[in-house]
Each structure stands twice: as structure tokens, then as C-alpha cells.
Specification:
The protein is an alpha+beta fold. Helix content is about 30%, strand content about 35%. The structure holds coenzyme A (COA).
């Protein structure tokens, strides 16, 4: 059965978006869906961010987890897909990507907050991720904490991070 839910996000993010250009960050919505539903949009964003921008090898980007993950896609007010991430059944969040032109406006934060909210709804005990070192502050600001030391994955420095949920959630 296709897992398709759409959430309208009413948060008004940084004033910067209004001041600096015509990128409207109001009226964002986030779609949660299976790979079959969002493959085209997720592939386009992840190709631009991970394969083209970060030079991650094609064979490292795509794996068999996509077919069984819950995917999140952020759409702007013009219904353009601008960010994505996936959540696995082992509580791992991954492939978090915001298109370059849309970074720094709070889109990544809203995306992660949606994933955290979904994890709480599903009464997951934890979320975990492998963070690129440059993004540690981003994830710390959302409540994740660093576990262990740095390692290389696809030639990029990473560190494991986790967030524990209260048993009452
Ligand atoms: N380094 C340090 N801090 C960062 C950061 C980075 N690369 N990206 C965001 N932050 C901080 C912001 O300063 C902001 O902090 P503030 O609220 O204190 O000002 C907070 O994190 C939220 O920022 P936001 O605007 O929501 O982030 P974003 O929409 O730019 O998305 C990423 C953040 C990391 C998802 C985005 O930069 C991205 O897609 N990068 C390329 C792909 C990538 O590296 N993904 C992570 C793989 S682990």
C-alpha cells in the first residue's frame, strides 16, 4: 500500500528569505511517501547535491534501502521539490539534502523536525545518523549528540550522532 501523507508547514522561517530575494519560504509542504511515489524528485535532488556537488560515486549513492525507506520531500510554494531525506526502519536518518539555492533559510531544520515528529508518532526509541562533519552543528541544534570519533565514508569525514526519545513519547 502506498504510504502517502502530506503536511502543510506553516512555520515562517528566517526573514532573510523575504529580504534577500524572491524565494518564498511560506507555504512549504512536506510529503512523506514510499520510493515509488517520490523517486523522481528524490533522485533529482540527491543527484544534484551528493553526486554532482559532493562528487559521491553513483554506486555509493543508490542502494536497496531506498525501496524500503520512508522518504520526505519538501516542496516550496511553487510546488518545486527542494529538499529530501529518508528514514529507515532501523531508526537511521539519511540522505538529508537541501538544494544549494535554498540553504540557510531553515528548510533543513523544518525537514528534520518533520522526521523527528514522525519518529515520535511511531514511538521510536531513538534516531541515529551518520553526519558529515560540517553539519554537526546543524544536527546538534536539533537535539542530536555526537557518538564516538570521526571516520571516512565515501571519502568524506563523518561522525555518528543519535537522539534518544523519552519513553513516554
Ligand atoms: N554547517 C554548520 N551549520 C549549519 C550548516 C552547515 N553546513 N547547515 C546548516 N547549519 C545550521 C544553520 O546555521 C542553522 O543554525 P541557526 O538556526 O543557529 O542559524 C541550522 O543549522 C539550520 O539551518 P538550515 O537553514 O535549516 O539548514 P539548511 O536548510 O541549509 O540545510 C543541510 C542544512 C546540511 C541539510 C544543507 O546544508 C545541505 O543539504 N548540505 C549538503 C548535503 C549535506 O551535506 N547533507 C548532510 C549530510 S549528513
Amino acid at each position: 500500500m502506498v504510504n502517502l501523507r502530506i503536511f502543510i508547514v506553516f512555520e515562517i522561517v528566517k526573514c532573510k528569505a523575504n529580504i534577500e530575494g524572491n524565494i518564498s519560504m511560506q507555504g512549504l509542504n512536506i510529503q512523506q511517501a514510499d520510493w515509488a511515489v517520490v523517486e523522481q524528485e528524490a533522485r533529482r535532488i540527491r543527484t544534484a547535491v551528493f553526486i554532482e556537488e559532493q562528487s559521491i560515486a553513483v554506486e555509493d549513492e543508490w542502494d536497496d534501502q531506498d525501496a524500503i525507506a520512508l522518504h520526505f520531500i519538501v516542496y516550496n510554494a511553487q510546488q518545486q521539490a527542494i529538499a529530501t531525506a529518508r528514514l529507515l526502519s532501523n531508526h537511521s536518518v539519511g540522505r538529508v539534502a537541501v538544494l544549494k539555492a535554498y540553504r540557510g533559510y531553515g528548510i533543513g531544520r523544518i525537514l528534520m523536525q518533520q522526521i523527528i515528529a514522525q519518529a515520535k508518532i511511531e514511538q521510536r526509541p531513538t534516531l541515529k545518523l551518520s553526519a558529515q562533519v560540517h553539519a554537526i552543528h546543524f544536527y546538534e541544534s536539533l537535539g542530536f549528540t555526537v557518538q564516538g570519533s570521526e571516520y571516512l565514508d565515501c571519502g568524506i569525514p563523518h561522525v555518528d550522532m543519535t537522539m534518544m526519545f523519552d519513553a513516554s513519547h
